[in-house]
Amino acid sequence: MSSAARQVEPAEDAFAEELAFLAAHDDGPRPPGWRLTPRAAVTFVTGSGGDTLALPSGVTVPGVPARLAIGPKFVGERALVERAVVTLAGERGLLLVGEPGTAKSMLSELLAAAVSGDSQLVVQGTAGTTEDQLRYGWNYALLLAEGPSPRALVPSPVMTAMRTGGVVRVEEVTRCLPEVQDALVSILSDRRLAVPELSGTDGATVHAAPGFTVIATANLRDRGVSEMSAALKRRFNFEAVGPIGDLAREIALVRRQAVTALERVNAPFALDDVVLEALVTAFRDLRAGVSVEGWSVERPSTVMSTAEAVSVATSLGLADAYFPGDRDPLSLLPGHLLGVVRKDDPSDAARLLGYWDGAVRRRAETGARTWRRLWELRDVLDG
Amino acid sequence: MTSSTADPEVVGRLAAHRTPYLVGVRHHSPALAGVLPALLDAAEPDVVLVELPEELGEWLPHLGDPALTAPVALSGAHRDGSGLAFYPFADFSPELAAIRWARRAGVPVRPCDLPLAYRDGYRAAGGGASPLADALRRTVTGRDDEDLWDRLVEAPAPGQDPESLRRTALMVGWALRADAAGSATGVDPHDLRREAWMRRVVAAQGDRRCAAVVGSFHAAALLGGPAGEFARVHGEVVTSLVPYGFDLLDERSGYPAGIRDPEWQQAVLGAGGDPAAVEAAAAAVIVRICARIRELGHPAGPGEAREALRLAVDLARLRGLPAPGRGEVVEAVQTVLTHAEPWGRGRVVARAAGDVLVGHRTGVLAPGTPRSGLAPAVEALVEELGLPGPGAREAVALRLDPLRSPLDARRELTLRRLTVLGVPYGEPTATTGVGGADALTTRWTVTWTPATAATLPVAGRWGPTVELAALGTLRARRSGREQGEGHTPAAVLADLADAAVCGLPDLVGDLLGDVATVLPGAGTLDESLTALDLVDRLRAGHLPGVPAGVLDAHPTLSRELETAAVAQVAGLAGATDPADARALVELGLRHDAHGSGLRLAAALRALADDGTPLIAGAAGAVRVLLGLASAGELGERMASWLDNATGPDRRTVLRDGLTGVLAAASPLLEAPETLDPLLDRVEALSDKDFLDRLPALRGAFTSIGPGARARVLAVVEQRTGDRVDVPRAVDPEQLAGWLAAERTALAALDAHGLTPSTQDFKTDRPALRTSTVDEAVELPAGLRWRLVLGRRGDRPQGGARYAAALDELYGRERGEGAAGGDLGADLSDPFPDVREWSDELVALFGERVREEVLAAAVEGGRFEAALELDPGAVRPSVDLLRNVLSLAGGLSESALATLRPLVARLVRELADQLATRVRPALRGLLLPTPTRRPTGRLDLPRTLRANLATARRGQDGRVAVVPARPVFRSRGRRANDWRLVLVVDVSGSMEASTVWAALTASVFAGVPSLSTHFLAFSTEVVDLTDRVSDPLSLLLEVRVGGGTHIAGALRHARSLVTVPERTMVVLVSDFEEGGPVAALLAQVRELVASGVTALGCASLDDTGTARYSTSIAGALVDAGMPVAALSPSELARWVGEKVRG
Asked: For the AAA+ ATPase domain, which residue ranges apply (chain A) (predicted)?
């Protein structure tokens, strides 16, 4: 697509072929401004379930194969994706909430690519995000030199999406200060944006073209940082995105991402399956508050996201690559877990001890070799 | 039948079958109930068969009566209550529709299911591979927990013709059956027997045209199959027809054979298969849910209702359904209304949806229906058990021994069950077992009153027998919590206790599951230990009707509860109540059996280092018990407390620390060397030092109760070789020896001119004079121990005055053996009044010790002692203030007037000290400042000034400034109108935190930029804001006691919020919430969501160690309220930071 190498391709480029195929495959009615039908958008995100889809007979599109299996991209309930797509089809704002590391941003990117073919109208919410980034800013040099004019106006991604009838994504909306978030309220209810400085000219009001909508993501753990106002909440439909439900899938995901990360530094990934399984199991137990066997586990307040598991797996892999034969990766695991858990609350370390007392010890007693080794390594934790 | 059979062919055969004409149904199905009359009209049968056991046939005429209003419930069971068959009927039950049709058409109805008397097996728990159902499910579903019938039959039904609906239903039933047949276990043998009976009934109809309305699972079996042999295995069967309610019909109520959301099903039935009408029903339901949410005090307007309906309809369209089904409506309501908050708003929406979708319809039987159900069943039962029945008017006293006599066990269960049902019949009388253990026999007073007869029919709604009704009430309580505010540990434990005494093992199993999920997250240490006790009783089989095997399903429960208790241990660091120390010891002893575990070890180490002296002592003792520390180490530590106890503070440490250690006295004494260093020191101290420490020592040893103290005494006796516990029987020879030694010493002093002044002492007691010479030990070891350990009235000769003075304070016995009368009653003269006592204390122990003893007396409930304290001379401390204040409630106005100067002085001095420390943190404001960060507010004058260097004259002569360095204004905050709401828990005793909070509030009240509110709460909330600037009257207003209801206090605090962004709510509490935790979290989330800055203080005092519930505090942190143990100056710093922004 582009000449310069990128670390990550945006969804509409990475899956350009599938998007073009699905646009031709399902020619049913589409909501205004949409590239795909709602049904095709759901298929794009969740995959065709292994089936190979065919273009309707007689339809050929250059550069698009006649038959194609759509790969699954989002690992989760299909009903959730259906609700999200229907929400967007009603031009209503969609808010994806969930723990960190649950692929909310990926889902929002896929949806934006499926709906409007462009996932790059993004506002990244931080405590430093200003209203300029949600409404419009000015080229101050021009502004001072010429006074307000459409030329001096710098549109925000939101304004651009309104003009083009596209989907704009607001990442981590709850990290923005409340007064900044509230700029979205009038945009979502009135569907237009006033530019008082240009009053009396054509540019005084920017109207949203059909198809304009907002996908925002918010982090459950950021609650209380900058909570959304009730007015803004009422303008969104909420979808809670949960962590990956299946152990094997999560292990595969962690492996895939750790391998990618290690490839970037040209280190081979030689992490034992056993270590990886122990790692992911421990993460899942601590995240869910209940072990694989159904024993209750006290949850630390730290987020035990899949992304963190990937970073631990990567660290273990790097340790193995750069210090080969130094220590076996399993013996490093308790230390890494402690590092992940002990972030904000010192009592989290105590909760990890509780995990060792409970699940790890019981598994060791049943004779699992990995867990016996981990139980032997308990002194690392109680420093 | 295998899955290789092509399904269109099988379904075709089923649909075309005529003897019988097959209607495969599910017990509740609005779709089929709606089309059944049309199907039967078309089939024109001579007889209709319904899937009900033979014995229930007698009720069919009453069931079909047009005067009957559904829902009603038909049930049958064996005489002993086993083998219950339960059939709730609503308008949308196809069987009821068939029975009603038959009555209208004048066609006979026959039950065709296996009679209850012939049933000896029951369905085993299913589960196994289900390839066909899975394949079907894949074609329709997006959700993980899909109900196949709902998706395939109910949701696509609107607009379909009756015949195709019948075919779909038969197909789904066949698929489920094929899966069951293909699984490892095959179709359940019990089902096969029932089907064989059904075939027999069909055959018995001869050549009459018959229609069978049976479960669609069974339809295929009626095509043909082997005949069965049937033998009667049970005697009499009891049947009943009772009115029922939609709240019980809802599947989540825990009653069998229910369906989700009956009111929705009723609406679908009412729509009569018209897609537009179903959509209208969905609209009505959604609007009513929104209205209900508004009634519950949360916003949900027409805009959201419109969006929810739009989403439901569009989802149905995307999924290819004619109209939104239950699934779509629920999904849409969740997505639009819950805001992804499972606890706060989610609970409200769930409750509103429950109210609207479940509904409150209740059934009425037709006039002339025979009486059945609970009341006749109970009357028969009490007669059988020989308990007073309707004829008896006299009260009967019973003593039951349920573990020995089976009859008593049944009586006990019946009485307990009736109690749970709220039927006034038996009154339990409290009994205690030997040695304080659990009583194994019970005492009852039983009367049959008119009230008994009157309440039985009301209770009959819950079930037709006393066991089922008790089960029903308890299940309803449980599901009420599940759908309402959520479980609280206290409620779960109460229900578990009820279910256990009522002999309901299944429910006990479920509740044990609740205990395992609820307690680890929300239980306090006490609750965890209570649960462990209950589990121990269950394991021991002390509860009739509940086999110990009920615990088999929860093999790790005890361990999990212990783990949960361990997680609470960290929250004990600030505890000052000996009960907490004892709980810690109890927990430690439980772990003794299987090793301590890393976490407990770490927590105990932390407590021993950082806890209050009491908890540090107890933790130290537990560490010794668990082998984590050596006995000698602990002994040295105790000895060091004794050595260091030179000032009043240190003596408090000695008393509290020792009390903590002695909480573990009994097990510790198995290793007496722990006490050795302490004993050595006590004996080696000089008289004066010993007497200084005596009140503290005695205070500690009193806490353990006479029983344990006697054991310490035994250890001491072994050491000294004396018998020291004989009341008033000191060996005269020995006493003579002491006196002689004393005289000699005095003579020696005289000779050296060191005679101390004797004016304080009466001349007839020279032996008791306090020595000024350190080496001279005047009170012998045995006597010292008598002074420390003696019982009230145990006045060793030679030490009588000391002992009497201390008895005055510590004489009241507590703990094991306190009630025993083995020692004679107090026979010595008590001190006439406090004043005299106080004088005596000065004479004996000196002025400094007197203050301590009096303060301790105040704490121990000797209110008058406070009046003896000299306002001018006392050292102001929060502890003393706290003690004095805790009396304020119990004193007369005149006594209060004497106390007031003391309190006034204490408050004034403490507030001044605090203000000096706190004020600096509250000074200063912040104005908008220039910044280079682009905030969007351009500061034009500054920008111009900063960019003059880049001004250029353009070609047209105009000057243009190129603003290379724009300057912006930062956000300024006005700091002068913040509101601070202090919400202070006064439920426990007068905690130091309460005093500190009042003092701190008074300091805050003096800061002009803050308006300070003070709410004191227990179960009630008192707004003391008008007193906040006067800590004295504020503190005198506070009344301690009552339960803890934090959520209520926060609700009131929310009503004080006008500008959320400039409001701080500081909650001072131990977080042991008495109400449901979910409600508390919802309040906190509401507060935080509205933008209020919230802070939880686990304690507010100088030490920064707190006693609080760690689990609830953790949940509050998740909800957005940080929790910390703060000192007042730290709180002030925090407030200052927030105000300055």
From this structure: 90-246
Chain B residue with minimum CA distance to A39: B318
Q: For chain B, report the end-to-end CA distance as a whole number of angstroms.
A: 75
- Tell me which chain B residues have a C-beta less than 8 angstroms from the C-beta of A178: 1061, 1091
Most B CBs within 10 Å, among A30, A140, A154, A236, to test the B interface: A140
Q: Does residue B393 contact residue B448 with C-beta atoms inside 8 Å?
A: yes
Of the candidates B335, B339, B934, the beta carbon closest to that of A233 is on B339
Closest-CA distance, A201 to chain B, in angstroms, reads: 22
Domain limits, chain B = 7-244, 262-340+349-358, 374-470, 713-818+828-867, 930-969, 978-1140
- CA distance, residue A354 to nearest chain B CA (Å): 5
* Complex ipTM value: 0.79
Say if residue A10 is preceded by a cis peptide, omega within 30 of 0.
no
| Nearest of B716, B720, B647, B643 to residue B686 by alpha carbon | B643
CB B948 within 8 A of CB B965: no
Mean pLDDT of chain B: 76
| Interval B238-284: pLDDT, tens | 788 888 888 888 877 767 777 888 899 999 999 888 889 999 999 99
Q: Do B142 and A141 touch (CB under 8 A)?
A: no
Residues 6+ apart with CB under 8 A from A276: A251, A254, A255, A313
Give the residues across from B198 on adjacent strands: none
CATH class of the domain at B978-1140? alpha beta
Using pLDDT thresholds of 50, 70 and 90, give the confidence band for residue B612: confident
Q: Record the pTM.
A: 0.68
pLDDT, mean over chain A: 84
- Cross-chain Cβ contact A90/B311 below 8 Å: yes
Collapse the DSSP code of B250 into the 3-class scheme (helix H, G, I; strand E, B; otherwise coil) and give the result.
strand
Q: Could you identify the residue written with the tokens 């439980």?
A: B590
Question: In terms of CA atoms, which chain B residue is nearest residue A31?
Answer: B314
> How many whole angstroms separate alpha carbon B512 and alpha carbon B496?
7
* Contact call for B301 and A234, based on CB within 8 A: yes
CB contact under 8 A, B314 and A90: yes
Cβ distance B197 to B52 under 8 Å?
no
B110 membership: H or E segment, kind and range:
strand B109-113
Whether A358 and B563 lie within 8 Å, measured CB to CB = yes
pLDDT digits (tens, 9 = 90+) for A204-235: 899 999 989 999 998 876 654 566 777 888 88
Question: Is A347's CB within 8 Å of B1090's CB?
Answer: no
- The C-alpha of B914 sits at a distance from chain A's nearest C-alpha, in angstroms, of 29
Average pLDDT over residues B725-747: 51
* E-assigned strand segments in chain A: 52-54, 67-69, 93-98, 122-124, 136-138, 153-155, 167-171, 192-194, 205-207, 213-219, 236-240
